Amino acid sequence: MMALLQRVAQARVVIEGQVVGAIGAGLLVLLCAERGDSEVQSDKLLDKIGKLRIFNDDAGKMNRSLLDIDGKGAAGGLLVVSQFTLAADVSGGNRPGFTAAAAPDEGRRLYDYFVTQARRRHGDVQTGRFGAEMQVHLVNDGPVTIPLRMAPPPTVSEPV
Question: Which residue of 9, 27, 53, 78 is 20 to 30 Å from 45, comparing CA positions?
Answer without folding.
Answer: 9
